[in-house]
Specification:
about 190 residues; mainly alpha
Length: about 190
């Protein structure tokens, strides 16, 4: 058995955990000018908020963001949500957005790239439910056609061609939408690199 002096110092473990403590009496920092002054260690240690304060800050922030969002959506036809919803509706009808609509879409792709991939969150809940139903119907239609062709003894080549036709017809609105978004991405990327 090794003695304590024989154990290398590197094997001792040091815990580097950070903790957050909430004091019962919060203190606040003064004006924004005082924030620019290099904070001392004592001042940093005396600035605390209660859990309820942080919850209230988050709730107020969320309410304000939602209020601004809905005010923007209701009043501005060029808002991100309205542009995405109009584009999606046009593509559902198998139409391509106008040049003006594409300019709005490119604007949002260029100036808010972090929203990319979140477009479907802008759509109303009814639209999302309808999309899920459409995907299920497409899947069932393709499987149904495949099974009926197999029962008739069709060749694999015939089955694959027919499935391609059926799926192409059912998935065309999604393809149009994805192409429109891709064009807006590419155009906004080209404009931002120039």
């Amino acid at each position: 058995m090794k003695s304590l002096s024989q154990i290398p110092a590197s094997k001792t473990k040091k815990r580097n955990a950070k903790r957050v403590v909430f004091h019962s009496t919060p203190t606040t920092i003064g004006s924004s000018a005082s924030l620019q002054i290099k904070e001392t260690k004592e001042r940093n240690q005396s600035c605390w908020y209660q859990k309820q304060d942080l919850k209230r800050f988050r709730l107020d922030n969320t309410r304000t963001a939602l209020a601004v969002h809905f005010k923007q959506v209701a009043k501005n036809p060029k808002s991100y949500v309205n542009v995405i919803q109009r584009t999606f509706k046009l593509c559902r009808l198998r139409k391509v957005p106008s040049q003006e609509e594409m300019q709005y879409l490119m604007y949002w792709q260029r100036f808010c790239p972090e929203r990319r991939g979140l477009e479907k969150l802008c759509l109303p809940a009814e639209t999302a439910a309808a999309n899920r139903q459409r995907v299920l119907r497409t899947r069932k239609a393709v499987i149904s056609v495949q099974n009926s062709l197999r029962e008739k003894g069709a060749s694999l080549d015939t089955i694959s061609k027919k499935l391609h036709q059926v799926y192409h017809a059912l998935a065309q609105p999604d393809k149009i939408y994805n192409r429109v978004i891709a064009i807006a991405d590419a155009s906004s990327e080209n404009e931002s690199s120039e």
